[in-house]
Each structure stands twice: as C-alpha cells, then as structure tokens.
Target: FAD/NAD P-binding domain-containing protein
Amino acid sequence: MATAISSAPTPASLMEKLHLRDSQQDQSSILKGLEKLIQSGTSPSKPTLPTLDKLGVRELPGDIDTKQIATSWLLTFAKYAQTGDVNGVLSLFVDDAFWRDLLAMTWDFRIFQSTPRIKTFLADRLALSKLSSFGLNESTVELKQPYPDLVWIQALFSFDADAGKASGVVRLVPVPKSDGQLQWKAHAVLTNLEELKGFPEKIGLLRDPLPNHGKWLAKRQREIDFVDEEPKVLIIGGGQSGLEIAARLKYLDVPALVVERHPRLGHNWRTRYEALCLHDPVWYDHMPYIPFPPTWPVYTPAMKLADWLESYAHHLELNVWTSSTIVKVEQDEATQKWTVVVRRGENGPERTFVVDHLICALGFGGGAPRMPKYPGMDDFQGKLIHSAHHKSAKDHVGKKVVVIGACTSAHDICAEHVQHGVDITMYQRSPTYIMSTKNGMPKLLGELYSETAPPTEIADRINASYPNPLMKLMHQRVTKDIAEADKELLNGLQKRGFKLGWGEDGSGFLYLAWKRAGGYYLDVGASQLIIDGKIKLKNDSEIERFTKTGIKFVDGSELPCDVVITATGYDDPRTAVLRILGDKVANKLGPIWGISEEGEINGAWRDLGIPNLWYMMGNLAMCRFHSKHLALQIKAKLEGVWKGDRYSA
Model:
C-alpha cells in the first residue's frame, strides 16, 4: 500500500473521465483505462519497482548461483550490522530500497524507504539493537521472476537482537558493476521480532510435561473464575481477534480474561445474514496453534466459523466470560493501570479487576452500523434496516426489496434474495472493485497461501516483507492480470451499466481493504446474477428522498419497494473505544484503521496514544500474524524488557 496523494484524482472521478461506465466498452479499453489510472498515480517522488531497465541490466547470466549470492550478501550484512557500520550496511542496498521493521529494532511497525531514510534509522538504532547470530535458511533461497522485467533472489534468515530472537527476509536485485559484471543488492528487507529473550512461548518442547490425574477440571474452573490470580490483561470482545490475542498471551504466561457480552462465542458470525461466507480461502485463514483441518471447505460458512471459535477457545483453554458486560472502565494516570468493573451474567454479580493492559477486540464492526440519512426516511412505510440486522431473505418473499450499497454484504444479500425468488434491486452509489475469487485469489495469494504453498509461518513472513507501498506497486500489475482473466465477467457488468472501480491508482483489492475496509466485492456468483438481470441495478441518479412507498431519485424516477436494506458499512472502530472510555479520551486516541504516511496500518496492534490501551482487529490472517506482535509488546512491558520507548524519528 502507499500513502494517498491529495492532488491525485479519486478513483471515482477518474473512472468518469475515462468513461469506464460506457456500456459499449470492450476489454481492451477497460485495460487501457486501468493503465492510465496507474500512470496517474506515479510521480518521481514515489517509489518504483526495481525493473531490469531501471537497474540498467540488459541481460542476466544463465547460471545464477542463488545460494552463494544470498550467503555472501548475508555474511557481509552480518559483519557490518554486528560492528555498527552504517555505511557498510547501506552499501548493500539499492538507492530506492525498503526496510520494514516489526518491533525487532524499533519496538514499532515502521517502513523506511530510500537509503537516506534507512541511513537515519540505522544511525539511530543499529548499535542499540545489538544484532548477532545471523543464519541463512537455505531452503528458502529462490530466484523469483514474477514478470519478465522483475527478477530477484528471495531468502529468509534468522538473527538475534537485543529484544530477542528475530527473523528476516531479503530480496536481492541485480545491479551492474563498472566492469560489466553483476552484483546483487537488497531492494527490500524485513526484520521481525519472533520471541522475547528469556520468555519463549510455552509450546512444543516447552509445554507442560507432567500428567494430570483427575485434577484438570477443577483446576480449569478456578482458572476461568480467576480464583488464585488476577488477570493482567482484560480483552473486550470474544471474536476471532479477541480469541487469537488471548491465545498468544496464554502461551506467554500472561493471564488474560476475555469478556464477551453475548451468550455464545461466534455470535457475530452466527447471527448475521444466512448467506454470509468468508471469501478468503482456508489456507489464508489459519489461526494460531490450531490450523483448520485438511477437510475444511475452501471458503468457510459463517455458522461453521462460529462453531470453530467456540471449540478454539475450549481446546486452547482460554479464559472467557460470556453473557458479561463492562460496567465501568477507568485508568489511573499515575500507574497507567486499568480498573474494570465486569458484570458476569445478565443479572449476575459484579467484579472489579485492576489490570495492566486493556485490549479492545471489537473488530471492523466495532463501530455502530453506519446508516445513511436521506429526507423522508421516517415517512417510509416499509421495512428499513441495516445489513447488520438482516437475517434471511425468506422474510421478504413476495416483496420488492432494494439494497443500498454495492460491496460485499450488498452482493451477498442480493444473491440470497434471488435464491428465494425475491424481486431485488441493488442501488450502487459509487464504483466497486470486482474480482472473481476463481481468477483473483490464485494470483493474489496462491504462491503463499494454497494447498502447495509453504508453511503458514513462512508465508506470513514473506507476505509481510512487502511493505505496503511496494505491495501497492506490485498489485497494480496483478490487478491488470486479474482484469484480463475476468474480462468476460467485467464486460458483462459494463454492459449492464455497473460502475467498475479499480482501487487507489489501480491497485485493486488489498489496498482498499487496508485503507477503507471496503469498496470491493470478491465475486462468488452475484456478478453473474447482475449480468443476467436477476439482480436489478440502479445507479444512474442520486437519491433525492424516501417516499411512503419507495425511493425517489434526483432525475425524477421512483423505485417502489417494501423493504430497504442499507449495506453501507460501519462507523470507524475508534467510536467503539470512545463508547467504552468516554469522550474525555477523544483527543488522545489516535486513528485505528487506515494507512499512515509511511504505509503502515495506523493504530491496530500498536500504540493508540493512550498507555496500555490496544486495539486488536483484522481478518483471520492479520490477527494470526499480528496477535504475536501485540502479545510480545505486552509481555515485554510486563517483564520490564521494554519500557515503551518506540523509535519515532
């Protein structure tokens, strides 16, 4: 991903300028328009891909000894790093390089792009980080050529830092020397904290080795009730994000309590609309410690995931209080500890905990459902609900239904209504990025997350080694490839008048997800229903007002309906925190989701501006990877390993 440039036209306005709504367009004009959109987002001040042409490489030798090259680079890198030789380290990088650090050297999530930025970072942190014990993972060394003009050697390595054990990924690109020979320099490096010094996870050989004869059940109940010890961390929310961070903390020996207001875990998955199903494949979605079994469907139904979350908490022995609510939360400014009053059960007793850390795990929907406001809504005599409250299309048989919105939930709900024979119209307010899962997911994730991909922990490191600004550049190309593969689908949508978006600067799906958590639909069948006219489409005029019997538009047209479902997303997750802590912290609380100027997610899993307050969120994959980072930060603060000083330069 990359930072949005305010002077660049928005994707919607560019789409209109390029006439991508024209129903007579063919696929070649769609791709030409996409190319123009990509070019409009490039400038000399932005990073670029390390193409062979840019590097000045005309020809590659036929025999490239990748292991020797990677070994030599890492040995030299280790020598300079261990002696604190900043200029020596810089000599191993191309000018337009990236260095992403996840806690290992900065105690933060940071991206340094270009050698001047990297030099400042290394001057400040290299000696303090005390890097040592470098080792190359030889089995991971590969020559990669994702496109004819892009070639690099990719390798994973391990090392020790002052904080603990760490992992790294490097991608080396060819650079010509003065004698015409090639040398290989780093274009991207990831340094990632894996384990705190002296505080490993209690897994594998470190699990409890002793038998437990007849004492487990009683012991487990005392743990859940916190009879013998108080929690050090309280987690608000028992969805996947809350459970995954609870699991990470448990196996770092940090007692944590998950407070879930609903009677069962998985409530938000179990009670959403019947048609809800994950559009990420199972290989991408594994959770810490217990991966999904090989019998699991590729795309997980919501109800199945809800049951899985219950079993996950049970098998990992997580301490969860369901049907429990937060009555009061206060922070002591001197100690920075949190006093939290929890009511257990609907009318049960209240208990007060004083904890070191408070985690809000309230997800993307932690904010309230975002309901659009139009004149006349109070006059509408039909049913008007947000998609968060929609249950089943069976409730609307024989009625005319309009869905306001054109992203994932809107498509799912419209398709569900078609299956039940309901007259359904989608009202599209702005362009939507469309990508079929059949063609798109293999191109986006297949190399890292598939049946034949590397182990998840390896895939996660490689995935993280693409800093978001670099990932955005790569995905501009991938988005074009997917559009070519989806040309029949996209042509059909164009002919129906569907407004196609392409994401920021033509970068497609993932950047939209990281920046907006919306704006796209990963097609699993609803697009064809639009093409076939089974889902009616309205997008040629803005809504003027609601009437008693339907919706009136600015162009004078009217759409009679009995039911309106607004699939218009949720408030910012920040609002959920403010509902718990009160508006008094509004000036201190930073943004949670969205992209920072450097290209990192703003506040999830890291500093929110209020000491010892955290927000855990993301899809299953992001929670899997970043739950470890959040748990390591909390453990390091509890043990005094880290005093909370993040590198901010």
